[in-house]
Amino acid sequence: MTVKNSSPTRVQQKLKDILVALDETGKPYFITQRNRPKAVVIRYEDYSALVEQARERGPRIIRRPEISGGEPIIQGTRISVRHIVERVRAGQSAEDILAALPHLTAAQVYVALSYYYEYRREIDQLIQESRPERIIATQGLKVEKAADGVVIVRGDAGR
After folding, report:
1. Domain at 8-53: CATH code
2. What is the reported pTM?
3. Are the C-beta atoms of 75 and 67 separated by less than 8 Å?
4. d(Cα 17, Cα 47) in Å, to the nearest integer?
5. What whole-number distance in Å separates Cα of residue 109 and Cα of residue 74?
6. Which residues in the chain land under pLDDT 70?
7. What are phi and psi of 62, to 5 degrees?
8. Which 8-state DSSP code applies to residue 20?
9. Which burial class, exposed, middle or buried, applies to 67 when counting CB atoms under 10 A from its CB (0-12, 13-18, 19+)?
10. Is 124 helix (H, G, I), strand (E, B) or coil?
11. Which of 3, 77, 89, 114 has the largest count of CB atoms under 10 Å?
């Protein structure tokens, strides 16, 4: 990681230059790290308009490669659609989910479920791939079912 040392006076001047350019052009200023945007400086009016637009649109499902391996998640959270569906399949109601995950809104839970019904095959595949038996098998271990909900995991040496 490259570290740049700058004096407070130099940082202040750079920030002033960015703000002047922002006022003159209205164009956002991108701060990058490893050639990827890391932060953006925009006018407050533009920020307010974006916030209002997001509020009007309501909760959405998005994908971010760095969260849950790019699985569909509820925007503004790290909660995947798969997680919500697994809870419903385990017998939880929307109210149960909201009690367990109080930072979610009912709209977010229902948007996740709506997404599931629209993209059922994809989410079912993700659920199948995330089953503990499949994950354990990728490590070269063998899984034997002992009873409902109970398995025995054995390595190559049979232990």
Report:
1. 3.40.1620
2. 0.57
3. no
4. 20
5. 8
6. 1-3, 58, 156-159
7. -130, 175
8. H
9. middle
10. helix
11. 77
